[in-house]
Amino acid sequence: MSTTPENISGTTIHEAELETSFKDNLARRRVEAAIFKAVILLATFFAMAILATLVWRISAQGWAWLNWNFMTSFPSRVAARAGILSALVGSATIILLTVVFAVMLGVGAAIYLEELSPKNKLSQFIELNISNLSGVPSLVYGMLGLAVFVRLLGFGRSIMAAACTLAMMILPIIIISSREALRTVPPSIRLAALALGATKWQTTWHHVIPAASPGILTGIILAVSRAMGEAAPLIMVGGVTYIAFLPNSLFDSFTTLPIQIFNWAGRPQEEFQAIAAAAIIVLVALVLVTNGVAILIRARLENRNRW
Amino acid sequence: MSTTTAIANSDMSAITRTGDARLKIRWHELAVVRWLQICAWISVATTIAIVAILVLESSAFFAVVPVWNFLTGTNWSPLIDPRSFGVLPLITGTLVVSLGASLIAVPIGLGSAIYLAEYASPTTRRFIKPTIELLAGIPSVVFGYFAVTTVTPFLQAIFPSTEVFNAASAAIVLGFMVLPMITSLCDDAIRAAPRTLREGGFALAATKAEVSIGILIPASMSAIMASFILGFSRAIGETMAVALAAGSTPNMSLNPLISMQTMTGYIVQVAMGDVPHGTIEYQSIFAVAAALFVMTLILNLLSQFIVRRFARQWE
After folding, report:
1. Which end of chain B is flanked by fewer CB atoms within 10 Å, N or C?
2. Residues 6 or more apart in contact with residue B250 via CB below 8 angstroms
3. What residues in B contact A42, CB-CB < 8 Å?
4. Which CATH class is domain B84-310?
């Protein structure tokens, strides 16, 4: 600090100016910050408002049509008599088969890549390939199904072809989520098992997989809920909209809930729009319950398993 | 002994042990590992199959329609004579719808991600995050129905010239569909930024908004950009919502209030119509799918490249 009077007074004026301008600025900046917070809060609520509007609109349109007859009737040209029995049975059969195929292949591939494979260029290549597969549009998997399962392997436009196609589609999702689950298992568990003389496979089978299973299961459930709502690939492999019988074999033709909804929603008559909404309630309920189970498992998991 | 050595030299060495007489080779383990290896390779086989099918079927198409005419033609009327296979109207439709979707999903997604990452209390977060994830779980066809029965009437109330099927309603619901993905990717990216960045900002007397906008967003820019590109790529490949809402009139226009056909919409239209195998219509969907596949692949690779090239490693 200088001792000359001039300097003292000069500095004081300067500091005072700075302070008032800082305070003015501060007030403005605080207002800006408040506006920013309000805007992003609005954005967050917007996302939730969409979900609420969706649920409200669809229940308003479809609730009245939802009854036991609707669940146990075949589709019909008359909206009042139409039901979703064949679509429900078709969806259930296809999803069940899809899960079997996709879990067998997907979890297997994840275990191999994460636990057993040598870490070299080849496994890096497979990894890159899987991450690119997960970005391929579902419709393109439908084209794959059409060319390979329907024609080349001769499954025809059948439940079997549909399940294989959906399994291919969710395979990358299951592989990626299972690998993430396996990666959360700490190395100490593997080392402990190996130190006791277990083989690599015994270690994986008896220790790593059980420890990772809740995570693997969550991934599978989320992939399944995705497959449940998917219509585009199934339309490619020949899902039809009018099926008035229940399948006898895996090579029968099929319809599913999303295909049925697509067909009804695309018609101009209001009654068909309404039964589309009723079918949507059933589909969304199934998907949300499946998703909810996955979220619950994950919440449980986050509380347990602190390594 | 020689068998054992041979196996030890192969990549199976990890699960067998040599040099100890008490330990037998576990053949069933070798079999299991082989099986798992095949599983891993099936993903590669899938990729090869997809590429092979698209190339094979569309090469039959391009034998009739020259590639150049396909890529630069501005008239798409494959089902009605005189036929014309110019894919630009479909690409325009796809881009208009996907850009519209990004206009909705990008600002809202980034905004809600900042709120979730920086402002929300843990309790609020525990409630909001699953809700947004539930939105991601709603099937595409449901959004299509929502577009036709709710969004379009709403648009017609504001712009009376809106057609029954229009690109705008498709773009809006598509925006809702990619929103959760952008939110959760941006949320992850912002949360990954280290505490010291925030504390540095606050120490310089920045407000929370200034820290978010001036420090955290630039710091996680690469992941945020990657999420936008991924969202765009997802929008391009989306099918059912667009097929229901946007209609099936190929229109090379930038007016979102009229009906437009997208690439995916065309493929579904043909597939619903039961077109015989081997006809030019049948082959045309593979040509369109090949174009779609290339577009999404480039976008996905671009987003991976951005993450890898520009991502910062926080210590």
Report:
1. C
2. B76, B77, B89, B90, B93, B260, B261, B266
3. 111
4. mainly alpha
